Amino acid sequence: MGWQCTGxxxxxxxxxxxxxxxxxxxTRESVLAYGTGLGFRASGxxxxxxxxxxxxxxxxxxxxRSTGARCAECGRLDRAHSVAADTIPDDPRTYRVYLAWxxxxxxxxxxxxxxxxxxxxxxQGAVAFSWLGRxxxxxxxRAEEVLRAALGVPDRIPYARKRAVRADLPDPAAxxxxxxxxxxxxxxxxxxxxxxxxxxxxxxxxxxxGIFGIFGIEGAGGPDGPGRPVRAVTGLVDGGAVAGRLxxxxxxxxxxxxxxxxxxxxxxxxxxxxxxTAAGAGAEAGVSVPTVVVGGxxxxxxxx
Length: 304
Known about the structure:
It contains 6 helices and 17 strands. By secondary structure, the protein is an alpha+beta fold.
């Protein structure tokens, strides 16, 4: 039995991304570092990753292009105990409300358990953010709804849109200014819909460009790097391989410089459920799975 990929995580605000693995009841992590080689080959069939830390009892097959990697039954079980699905309103933990910035004019409001810190923001690929308040779950949820309506911002943004704007980010000052402006509008609401049980937190912008490797790291797609991603992997197949030099990462995405093929985006959600083996030290950099052209920051429809 090989090791099955369980996805990308951002456990440490000072560290980089980590890939998780499982084989039976064994688990392990691989800490990823920018500038180093990364290569893998898919083997066998992609199967359900299970739910709530439990393996799928039937190891059900799942589609190659699904970002969820769960069968219908495990998907229902996972949603049955989910804050996002509003199935645990009596959760006693403290929650935080935040403003997350992904690109010019692209901001959302959301909530996350305080014990998780900013891990949720990094998992979503938020380039910058600020906390707004903290308190009980239902007060945080109420504030999220009020702010969404008052500020005209969504609580969800399709991931393809986040990825499309990431290659054309304004400078850090402009990022912070946009978050600060929305924070000011939120603070001006005072008692108009702001839950009494929610403690207001001071403005403090946090920028993730550095931890994502978007700017300031050689080969990370900045002015002196290899340039913006030109292709994105849309699904793995048995025997399909991806290999290159890791130059940046954000949310679930890894950006790999494959040399002559340019920088390729690997959405690690498409890796979950596969048994992956090392591509080998002598593997040629590149991609041998279906990909799509990325032009002008937007995903095109043609397959190679």
